Amino acid sequence: MPAISMFYGIVIYLYFYDDERHKIPHIHAKYQGEDASVSIANGEILAGDIPLSKLRLVQAWIEIHRDALMADWALAVNGQPPFAIEPLR
Length: 89
Prior knowledge:
The chain is α+β, with helices and mostly antiparallel strands.
């Protein structure tokens, strides 16, 4: 479960082989003990919860880095380590 980015107290993870449960490309955003699975395609929460203000930051970050996230997703579901992605600044 490698962390691929961190910004504003939010840690973004991609899990290896994580295409069974949600079946669509997604990331995990963790903030102060809360965890949400967020779609890479549209930024919608698939499961879990994080504060709305932090979700908006995650959605902006996804929008900026969607291509890199899709490339990392392909690596992770095949058991390969994803690359780090620049944080939101």
